[in-house]
Amino acid sequence: MQDLGTLGGSQSAAYDVSADGNVIVGQAENDGYQWRPFRWTPAGGVEDLNQTYASLLTGGSELWEAHAISPDGRYIVGFGYNAATDRDEAFLLDTWRTGDTNGDGCIDDADLLAVLFAFGTPGSGLTCHEDINKDGVVDDADLLTVLFNFGSGC
Ligand SMILES: [Ca+2]
Ligand SMILES: [Ca+2]
Fold first, then answer.
1. Can you say whether residue 101 is alpha, beta or left, with left for phi > 0 and alpha for psi between -120 and 50 degrees?
2. 82 C-alpha vs ligand 2 centroid, how far in Å?
3. Where are the chain's structural domains?
4. How far is the centre of ligand 2, averaged over its atoms, from the C-alpha of 137 (Å)?
5. Could you read off the pLDDT of 92-117 as tens digits, one per residue?
6. What is the pTM of this model?
7. Distance in Å, CA 46 to ligand 2 centroid
8. How far is the CA of 92 from the centre of ligand 1 (A)?
9. Cβ contact 25:67 at 8 Å
């Protein structure tokens, strides 16, 4: 049993975990006793998704709860406030950089080779990460996405 902590408040709750146990999502109180969606990792501890992904949240949009995470730790779902529609809505958060096929945070020759080796197929493995635009085939559109983002995060 492991204590995951809070975001500075007095309560937290974990709702889902990746297959390897290394990424956990849920809700935790911050030091202002507001419930916030969190992600926990062994290296980073508890982080508020609103701070980590602030650049994706514009016009007053906020994430409120993180309910589930994909087995590979890439995708997070939950709900929050969408300022563009002025509604509380479900969200899907892709935590990987655009063009990343292996989740190491860097777009480099490993991603380029992964796309080239999977070229013309739906992508490899259960998740088909080489199909970057998720249109069902690894083709020049996916290759260009890697090239345009080459070096990002490295
Ligand atoms: Ca990569
Ligand atoms: Ca594609």
1. alpha
2. 28
3. 8-94, 109-148
4. 4
5. 999 999 999 998 999 999 999 999 99
6. 0.85
7. 34
8. 21
9. yes
